[in-house]
Design brief:
The complex is a heterotrimer of chains A (about 450), B (about 475) and C (about 130). Chain A is an alpha/beta fold and about 450 residues long. Chain A has helices at about 10-20, 50-60, 85-90, 90-95, 105-125, 135-150, 165-175, 195-200, 220-230, 285-290, 320, 335-370, 400-410, 435-450, and strands spanning about 70, 130, 155, 180, 185, 190, 205-210, 235-240, 260, 280, 295-300, 305-310, 375-380, 385-390, 410, 415, 425-430. Chain C has one domain (about 10-110): Beta Barrel (OB fold (Dihydrolipoamide Acetyltransferase, E2P)). Chains in contact: A-B, A-C, B-C. The interface of A and C includes residues 315, 321 and 324 of A.
Chain lengths: ~450, ~475, ~130
């Protein structure tokens, strides 16, 4: 094994020091009857060169996004990633470090997380952010458990406009804690506010909204905030696309208690869905803070009065509070959070705004082009951010057929909603990377196809 | 030496990015969205140049310490060297530039890698089916316990109790709570192992599972494992294996052969994927056949030469991740296993155990060794002798930093006072081990001769000892 | 290690001082030293009733959490709100400004179960 550096002579010397004859003597505590008595059925070791060839062969069986003009989104978005991000995170003092248990030798990671927390707060309009969670969906799972604990109520109102995988994860997380999930229906591509209003009662632990929602529509958070005025105990959870917050009013301004979401759009590649990073931000409230899952970095001073950073409020966490901890989370997604932080710093105040605006404008452009085609409707109307729900109603072609034919022309036209939900149609996502030429081509090809 | 916050590099109007000009007609979004939904004031993000960003993060990286900087002997964390080729592989364009919603037929190469990884993980653990979805070790524990929960639900049994030894990782009891179980802790015996009598006293028809790390957090192999498994299984309960310490047993014993029913791996420990300063990790779960129906959906399957995601899993516990887990981490672990090969995996364990035993042998006269039982890949010392001189374990840890070496895990496991938990891993060479041993001895001597030197440590780091009480009393969590 | 005369002590290192049927309760000097820098004290609400040895709150240092147990039965008549902003009072003055709660005793006889200063001194020898 090439990553073991001791030579047989050195190993021999060490054994002598210990007073053992051979290495296998060190394993005497393992009962003979359960010892593994054969060799693993795993291929023999490869050299670096052979490994590279093997991976190359396998990789060639993929057709990656560079082969297509892709309009896939639904929770993972292909934004432009500035070159400097990878150059900085490949600095091995960052990526080969562990969780910063020894603060004095981990100031780089700690300060970077403090800055990440600060920028997430700025973006969401919230008071406090943790150091990251595993992904957007599990962050929602943690949020509903937290809401149940905080409110001491049981009912979670979660409209069908929340990402279906997120709903599933939230339910997986929430059910062992006695939480009851009520799923409210759609009204067009929005949530049915009337139904939510009827469901709101004294037993409501939380109301969950996605912003923009799974179908791309920007929900009227002001209206929801008004509904919640009479239900102060209910926790207002918003699942936000952080990139959209470059354009949209931050959830904090609508009185959200907890904002969670997937941080991937911020400088992290689509990478087949992982590693991503969940973010979680809360209102600046001491009681909520004590219920917060995950790590937190705080600013402090050393004995000479110099500024420094430490992990703080650790008594919430599993290594101290064990079965009474606010969550079991230990390892989070620190390096992905660092990527998000570098992205937010690099793009900055203007850049994030501009990316968000370009996403909106280009989506709007494509949407208007497509809406002109016969048999095509956009369920969202004009209300969208970077994604919309396309319905194609034609007697002679199935959606699968349309998808396949578009694909043959190099276009991944969108996510087929039937694969994820009970709805029909395509979920089309447009990022700032698209050019007008590509958008025109999409519209033209689809029109030709539908008229064939 | 301190580094300014990134926002303080800023100057109004300064930019560090470039985007193509918007090439479509611009419309006013306020006209199409509900009233009040357009942000009135831009988020107060930094206004900095690209050079500012690069200098800032380079400076931060210089205030950090990774495995590439030197020994990182954190017990139970398995901080081994992270091979560079694996970083290149995880950046292979046509492996990484794929979208999770792409159809299976376009990502067959990736699925083939994942499928083979599943097979290796099943073989290494002696289990039958694997879920790659959990994104970290504790996520894996949670999934493992939810599988157990689903299994009993299906059988129509209500079991409410999960047993953990008092030496267990904190994540064990916390994960059990997350999965809706009550936690019962049992005391360890004088040898640092599960006390069979205490175990028998707690196990009953209400017991869903025992969570066990083997070797445990003292590095000691639970040699009574055959009796333990019988006690649990006879009561109808299941046995959960915390795979944090897998580096101690590769090729020597398999959890499946010890009759464990569920195991989680930590790919970021045993299989060398970098820890990233606190993640990403990956915590695949492997189970015996009878638990396979309950693992998270979707499950990666193979039919003929085609790989696909099986979503038709009626008994599944559901999803725990929006997509398929930490794919990028799995690519690195796959590369590592292929580099090691069957023989190499066993050598990894042999050298990890040899290194730890060598260190233990060299240090046990200077620091108290509270449990004398044979240990494998890690060992636990106690700073209680030094504590009598007025120096706590935390001071010893901080003094190590002055010598540019990372400190071991301290104050864990909880059953050892002033615990110092050391795991050198197989990738440290003899010189590096000797240097650490020598430093630990020097510190012990310093405690006798110049205790204030140790008490006031660290002296040579970018910041001196930090005031954690101040941070917790008045949390300052953002700028 | 300070142990004050005239107080009653528990094996969990709490003290209680009784005056006119009202008991003032805190943690001992030994307890605060063992815990280290106290960063948070979770207090009960006024009027809450507790039976002897019930868990009435939590005390936290940077890296440890301890449950607080009531030495004798009673209902809460006062809580030390200063601790919300200055938890360090428990470290600095465990027997004075760092008191935690006051209760109306409902079973004064239970005091007999507790240790006096001398017995507690002796008990501490075994703890060290």
């Amino acid at each position: 094994m090439r990553y073991i550096s001791n030579t047989p002579a050195e190993q021999e010397k060490m054994l002598q020091e210990i007073g053992a004859d051979k290495v296998s003597d060190l394993f005497q505590a393992i009962p003979e009857n359960i010892k593994f008595d054969r060799s693993f059925n795993i291929p023999a070791a490869l050299s670096e060169l052979e490994l590279k060839e093997l991976i190359k062969d396998k990789a060639e069986k993929n057709l990656d996004l560079s082969e297509f003009d892709s309009y896939l989104g639904a929770g993972s978005y292909d934004h432009y990633i500035p070159a400097i991000i990878d150059h900085l995170i490949i600095r091995s003092e960052f990526y080969t470090a562990y969780t910063p248990y020894q603060a004095e030798l981990s100031q780089g990671t700690l300060q970077a997380i403090y800055e990440y927390q600060s920028m997430i707060c700025e973006l969401t309009g919230m008071g406090i952010s943790n150091a990251s969670l595993l992904d957007g969906a599990s962050a929602l799972g943690e949020a509903v458990i937290m809401a149940g604990r905080h409110s001491r109520k049981e009912k979670i109102i979660m409209p069908e406009t929340v990402h279906p995988a997120y709903r599933e994860v939230a339910q997986t997380y929430g059910k062992p804690h006695g939480l009851k999930f009520v799923e409210t229906s759609l009204k067009g591509s929005s949530s049915n506010y009337k139904e939510i209003k009827e469901e709101l009662d004294g037993n409501t632990a939380a109301v969950v909204f996605q912003y923009p929602n799974f179908f791309g529509t920007v929900e009227d958070l002001a209206e929801i905030a008004r509904m919640l005025e009479n239900h102060k105990k209910a926790v207002f959870i918003v699942v936000a696309n952080p990139m959209a917050l470059g354009l949209l009013t931050p959830p904090g301004e609508f009185g959200a208690d907890i904002v969670v979401g997937e941080g991937q759009p911020l400088g992290n590649p689509v990478n087949y869905g992982g590693p991503n990073l969940g973010f979680m931000a809360i209102r600046d409230d001491r009681r909520l803070l004590r219920q917060l899952p995950g790590r937190l970095v705080g600013k402090t001073e050393d004995i000479e009065g110099n500024t420094g950073y430490v992990m703080t409020m650790q008594t919430r966490e599993q290594h101290i509070r064990r079965e009474k901890a606010t969550s079991n989370i230990c390892t989070n997604e620190a390096l992905n959070a660092l990527m998000a932080a570098i992205y937010l710093a690099t793009m900055g105040k203007k850049g994030v705004e501009e990316v968000a605006n370009q996403c909106y404008q280009k989506t709007r452009y494509l949407k208007e082009k497509l809406a002109e085609i016969d048999d095509v409707t956009v369920v969202n109307g004009d209300n969208h951010f970077n994604e919309f729900w396309l319905k194609i109603e034609t007697a002679d072609k199935s959606l699968e057929e349309i998808e396949t034919k578009m694909c043959q022309q190099g276009i991944l036209a969108g996510v087929n909603l039937a694969e994820l939900t009970d709805q029909q149609g395509l979920l089309v996502s447009v990022t700032e990377k698209k050019t007008r030429e590509e958008l025109d081509k999409y519209a033209r090809k689809l029109e030709v196809l539908l008229n064939e | 030496m301190s580094e300014a916050l990134i926002k303080d590099y800023g100057s109004p109007g300064r930019k560090g990015y470039s985007l193509p000009e918007l090439d479509v007609v611009e419309k006013n979004p306020a006209e199409s969205l509900p009233e009040g939904m357009i942000r009135e004031e831009a988020a107060k993000l930094p206004e900095v140049s690209e050079v500012d960003v690069v200098r800032h993060y380079t400076s931060l990286s210089n205030m950090n310490y990774g495995v590439d900087s030197g020994i990182y002997p954190l017990g139970s964390c398995t901080m081994k060297y992270n091979p560079k080729i694996n970083e290149d592989i995880a950046r292979t364009p046509n492996l990484t530039n794929i979208h999770p919603q792409q159809k299976e037929k376009y990502v067959q190469g990736s699925l083939e890698i994942l499928y083979e990884l599943k097979e290796y993980l099943a073989e290494i653990s002696g289990m039958d089916e694997v879920s790659l979805q959990p994104a970290s070790g504790s996520h894996g524990e949670y999934v493992g316990l939810m599988i157990i929960r689903k299994y009993f639900e299906k059988k129509g049994e209500t079991r409410t109790k999960v047993i953990v030894p008092d030496s267990a990782h904190g994540t064990n009891p916390a994960s059990a709570t997350m999965a809706g179980y009550n936690v019962v802790e049992i005391a360890s015996n004088e040898g640092g192992m599960v006390d069979l009598e205490s175990l028998k006293a707690e196990v009953d028809e209400d017991t869903a599972a025992l969570m066990l790390t083997n070797p445990n957090t003292l590095g000691i192999f639970e040699k009574d494992i055959c009796e333990i498994q019988k006690i649990i299984h006879d009561a109808g309960g299941l046995l959960y294996y915390d795979g944090a310490n897998m580096n101690a047993v590769l090729g020597y014993v398999r959890p499946g052969d010890m009759e464990f029913d569920v195991i989680h791996y930590n790919l970021h420990k045993t299989f060398s994927t970098p820890h990233g300063g606190g993640g990403p990790g990956s915590g695949p779960v492997a189970v015996k056949e009878r638990l396979a129906p309950f693992i998270p959906a979707p499950v990666l399957k193979k039919e003929g030469e085609k790989y696909y995601w099986d979503n038709d899993r009626p008994d599944s516990l559901g999803r725990v991740h929006a997509f398929y887990g930490n794919y990028g981490v799995m690519l690195r672990a796959y590369a590592y296993i292929r580099t090691a090969g069957a023989k190499g995996l066993k050598e990894i364990t042999e050298n990890a155990v040899l290194n730890a035993n060598y260190m233990k042998h060299k240090l046990k006269d200077t620091y108290e060794l509270p449990f004398a039982s044979d240990s494998l890949h890690e060992f636990v010392l106690s700073g209680s002798r030094q504590k009598k001189e007025g120096i706590s374990t935390v001071n010893i840890a901080k003094r190590l930093l002055d010598y540019k070496q990372y400190a071991p895990t301290i104050y864990f496991p909880l059953i050892v006072k002033e615990a110092i938990m050391v795991e050198p891993t197989e990738t440290e060479n003899l010189q590096s081990l000797d240097r650490f041993i020598e430093t630990m001895k020097v510190i012990s001597q310093e405690i006798e001769e110049e205790p204030e030197l140790v008490r006031d440590a660290p002296h040579n780091t970018v910041v001196r000892k930090l005031d954690e009480a101040k941070a917790a009393r008045n949390p300052d969590l953002r700028w | 290690m300070k142990v004050n005369e005239g107080l009653y002590y528990t094996e969990d290192h709490e003290w209680i001082k009784v005056e006119n049927g009202v008991g003032t309760i805190g943690v001992t000097d030994f307890a605060q030293q063992e815990l280290g820098d106290i960063v948070f004290v979770e207090l009960p609400e006024i009027g809450e009733e507790f039976q002897q040895n019930d868990n009435f709150g939590v005390i936290e240092s940077v890296k440890a959490v301890s449950d607080l147990y009531i030495p004798v039965s009673g209902d809460i008549c006062e809580i030390n709100e200063n601790l919300l902003d200055q938890p360090e009072l428990v470290n600095e003055e465990p027997y004075q400004g760092g008191w935690i709660i006051k209760i109306n005793l409902s079973a004064e006889k239970e005091l007999e179960d507790l240790m006096n200063a001398e017995e507690y001194q002796e008990f501490l020898k075994g703890e060290a």
